[in-house]
Every structure is written in C-alpha cells, then in structure tokens.
Amino acid sequence: MNSIRRTRLGILGAALTIAAAISLPHVATAADEDKPAATKKAATDKPSADAGPGDAGAGDGGKTAGPLPAGHPDVGELPPGHPSVDDGAETDPHAGESPHDANPHGGNPHGDTPRRGGNSGFFEAPPDTAVEDQTLPPGTMVFTIRDADERPIPNATAILGILKSSVAQGDKRERREVTTDAEGTARLDGLPVGAGTSYRITTMRGLGTYATDAFALSDKAGKRVVLHAYEATDNVEGALVGAQAFVFVSLREGVLSVEQLFNVFNIGKVAWVPGKGAAQVGLPEGYQAFRIPDGMTDVRFVDEPTKGPWLSGTIAPGRHEASFSYQVPLEGKDRQTFRVELPPRVGEVRIFSEANKTMGLQVAGFPEAQRQAGRDGRKVMVTMRQAMQGERGINALDITITGLPVPGNTRWFALLFALSAAGLAAAYTIRQRAEGAVPDEAKDDLLEAREALLGEFVALEKAHRKGDIGPKTYGRLKAALLDALARIEARLDEVKAARAEQRRRDREGTRRPRGEARGEGGSA
C-alpha cells in the first residue's frame, strides 16, 4: 500500500472521533468505528540543523513515540474496536461508506473546498516524498516546497541538515540555508552519496515548522524531494483538530504506574501550534517519576512540574502520537482514586488497567469496565467513552483502582526481626571476640536465633506469594534475613571452633601431670 493510500485510511478512520471532539454539526459518530490506520508527518517546533535518524522531525509524527513499558498491554491484546497505534494498518473501518455517512452535507466543515477531500469530506494531507529520479545525476537533490493545495511556495527559506556518520570519526553535522526560486524549487549538486550521509529539509511558515524524514542519496541517481508547509495558528478554534486518549494503569511496588498516550489528528488545512499550556494535561497530586520516551518526533509533551505536561510542536494535517508515563504513590488503602485533566478536543478515551484476582477499574461517567484476556493470557480491565454531540470533548478522568493489596503486619515484623537478629549476631561476635571467651549460653542463643530466622523465611515466602509483600520489599527483607543468618552461622562456626580448642586444651592439661609424675618416679 502506498503512502497516499495509508494517509487516506488514517484520516478516514479518525474523522468521526475528531468530529465528536470539536462538535461539528451534522456529523454522525459511532462507537468502535474510528480505528486510525496510517500516519502523517508530525512537525518540529523549531528548525533543526541536523539530519539523520536521531533528528527526525515532522515526518515522524505517526511513529510510535517510544517503547512500551514493562507490563504494557500489547497492541494485539487490545479489545475489538481499539484504534490501531501502528503504521500502515491495511483495513479501513469506513470503507464503502458514502460521503453522507460521514457528513450529510458532503462539504468540508473547515469552510473551504478541499483539494484532496475524497469521500470523507475532510482534507487529506498530501504526502511529503523523496524519490529517486534517473534524470538527475548522483549527488544531486532538487527539492520543492508546496502548500496544502500543491502550489509551490516561492522564495521560501529552508535549512538542509546533513549528518555524516562513520566509525572512525563519529557523527559530523552540517547545515546549509537555501532559498527556493519563484517556482518554490532549489537544486543542490555535488552532495555526498551513500548510507553514511543522511539529509533532512526543514522550513518554517508562519508559526509552523515542517520537515522531511531523513533520507540518503544513492550512487545511482539523484532525488526529487517535496515538502509541504501549511498555514498555522496558535488558536485551537482555528484548526480542525481532535484527539484520542489512552490510559494504561499497572501495579508496581508501592505505586500505580500510569502511561498516557494521545493520538492527535488534524483533518483541516491549517496546522495548530499550541503555545505553552494551551494543551496542558493535569496529573494527580504528588505524581512522580515523570518520563517522556525517546522518540523520533518533535511533537511531544514537555513536563512542567507544578502544572503537568503540555503538548508542544506543530500539529500539521495528519496524525501525530505523543506519550508520557509517571507514577502515583499508593495510599495504603484497598481502593484509590486519582484525577487526570485532559487537553482540549479529546473525543474518545480508552482506559486499561492490570487485572489480577482482586483488582478492578472504575471511571466516573464511563461504562462498567470489562475483564478481557490478552493473547498471552494476561487479564486487563477495559472501559471507553466517546464525547457526545455538543460536548466539546472529554475534559477530565476520575479513575478508581479497587482491590489493591493492603500491606499487612508481616512485612514490618519480618523487617524488624531481621534487623534485630542481625544486630544480635553482631553483638555476640563483638562481645565474644573482645572478651576472648565463649559464654556457655552462646551456642544455645545462636541456635535459637537461627531457628527464628528460618521461621521468618517461611513467613516471608508465604506473604510474598499471597501478594502482601511486593518484589522490592521481598528482596530487601530476604537480603536482610540472609545477612543475619550468615552472621549467626559464622558465629556458630566460631563457637564450635572455640569449644573444640577448649576441649583440646583440657585434654592436654589432664595428660601432662601424669607424664610428669612418671618422670619423677623414674629418676628416683
């Protein structure tokens, strides 16, 4: 499937959800019918001087922002109707629908006639391309900057980023400023070829920044590159954008681990550049360990510790993905509620939580969560809701996790005893070594302490298997108990050796007088 077809599938699949988010009149919404399939290029929030995989910008908006965390439900485990978060999905849930199914009036809700509207009535962004041209000599690049309607943008300033990579010299970055002619085109000759050199073209138009994917030049022919730059606004009301939100909750040692992922769609011809705080996410009070995954896109969240993360970058026409993760400390109760405030224009939210034998998921205003099994047999709880007509998006989530394990007294008794036993063993060792003697009761006390420690080992294992003690606490307690046991065993060995030495001396002392007596009798 070519890139144009993939882009069309992605936009068609997103249209209904976005319509719900921005309350477009006369646009129907249907549950489980908005599976975004493909991706369009995201954009950078400032020009980059460099090229290469590590510098990808606008062209990477549809790529996954980073690896999923441990325990994250796999894409293949999500329930029927879950929007795909992969590139290049091959199915279109709206294939075969008439224009009136998506928009009864058949027009573009953005107010102008789309050049590439297709049957959806929404604008479909033309793809950026970098294609070999056999009529161009190797080392030659001809690039054109166009607008949303494929018209060239004359006298546009662009930055050519060059990344040269070699094992011997490492990475070397260059940048050149190039201005297009009256036809929106510029030509560069004599450029290095081969996989060791990659290129990236970046341009600005108004508030927006746009860039190609990184690409290389072959030694067979040159390339023709097309980059699109759109009008941009920082006012969300001036752009046709909407979002889907996904929340994944799992239980970790002492915390709830939360990942939030957003698919942001722009189905208009104007890019949206949210200013600081314009697309803010309010996180639960006391959240910690905030992390943005490494990714190939500049459309990403930026953390502001006192307020929460906000979305930055240029939301060009197409699909963009951004995510982050954080932790919510457990309160020591069997149920805990935390609140998440969402950015504007969120038309659909799906929430997943780990589902063990006791845990449950409740979200205010959402249907009852359903327990489902993934391909690997893991259980997850799932609930979802779409914004209603006229709702202007889902603004906040009150998420309650039930059936949380409450720490019992076993962990504290085990820890206290382990530390006490370790201290006891150390005290025995220090005192006995200092006195140079072995008290008669030392062995009995040490044996009694060892038996108690072994009993604590059994209690610790039972508590761990029941889930009363998490893996980190279990590891710490086990290490403390092992240390105490090692000290006691070492002291027992010392006691045995000392007692053996004492018995040897006693035997020698008993034999010496008889020998001396025999010697005196012989001399007489």
TrEMBL record:
Keywords in alphabetical order: Signal
Record flagged with keyword Signal: yes
Chain segments carrying region Disordered: 30-138, 497-524
Presence of the UniProt keyword Signal in the record: yes
Signal sequence range: 1-30
Compositional bias of kind Basic and acidic residues: 32-48, 91-103
Biased composition range(s): Gly residues: 54-64
Protein name: Carboxypeptidase-like regulatory domain-containing protein
Organism: Polyangium sorediatum
Top-level taxonomy: Bacteria, Pseudomonadati, Myxococcota, Polyangia, Polyangiales
